[in-house]
UniProtKB/TrEMBL annotation:
InterPro entries per the UniProt record, alphabetical: DUF3078
Protein name: Uncharacterized protein
Pfam families: DUF3078
Length: 88
């Protein structure tokens, strides 16, 4: 005789209260001054980059956390600067 009972498994899924998102960018700028520009100055190159990361917690009852990390880094180079190759 076959057994008619089967083992039922209970699958418990815990909700994920965390949300994650991020954004990044890179900008390059070139400032050129031609030889016939009478006011003087010099040509430069610049690089700017940034990163924004967020991790937020909300259990929709009592607790809510908002976490944000923002990082920016920039470099500037000019031909007349003989000491530094890049300035930050």
């Amino acid at each position: 005789m076959e057994s008619l009972t089967t083992d039922n498994e209970l699958l418990v899924v815990r909700p994920n209260f965390w949300t994650h998102k991020g954004n990044g960018y890179v900008q390059f700028t070139q400032h050129y001054i031609s030889d016939n520009w009478y006011k003087g100055g010099e040509s430069t190159n610049a690089l700017l980059s940034g990163l924004v990361l967020e991790a937020n917690f909300d259990d929709r009852q009592r607790i809510e956390f908002e976490n944000k990390l923002e990082i920016k880094l920039g470099f500037v180079t000019a031909p007349s600067d003989t000491v530094h190759k890049y300035k930050t």
